[in-house]
Design a protein that fits this description.
Elements: H1 3-20, H2 23-137, H3 141-158
Organism: Plantimonas leprariae
Keywords: ATP synthesis, Cell membrane, CF(0), Coiled coil, Hydrogen ion transport, Ion transport, Membrane, Transmembrane, Transmembrane helix, Transport
InterPro entries: ATP_synth_b/b'su_bac/chlpt (IPR002146), ATP_synthase_B_chain (IPR050059)
Length: 159
Amino acid sequence: MDNTFWAFVSLVVFFAVVWYFKGFPKMAKSLDDHSVRVRRELEEARLLKEEAKTQLAEYQRRRQEAERDAKEIVASASREAEALLADARRRNEEYVTRRTQMAESKIAQAEADAIAEVKASAIDIAVTAAKKIVAEKGSSGEAGRFIEQSLGEISQRLH
């Protein structure tokens, strides 16, 4: 009897003990349970993968919408800025036009005032000169008074 014989005998005894205690069905059941558990985990993993794909698609859609919204906001802000700039330019031009018109009006008024003052000065000088000339010529009496009265009326009418 050699070692191979005893190895064979111990193998047969092992199988007999396993068979007696119904180990083969327990091992099969254990393997079946493990197989069911693995299938369930694979199904859960597949469902999680599909859910992750759905969420990824949703996030990508939201990102694209956000990018679109951001572009619209930038475009809107750009249009608003251009409108504000155009409005500011228009207001500036109106302001310059108004100020120019006011300045021209003031210049025209100053011109008119200067002309009126020059005329008044010229009239006063002419009346004074006429009085002086009449006084030098020696107007006296009724004619002198008439001349003085006439010069006063001329001065009032010309002013």
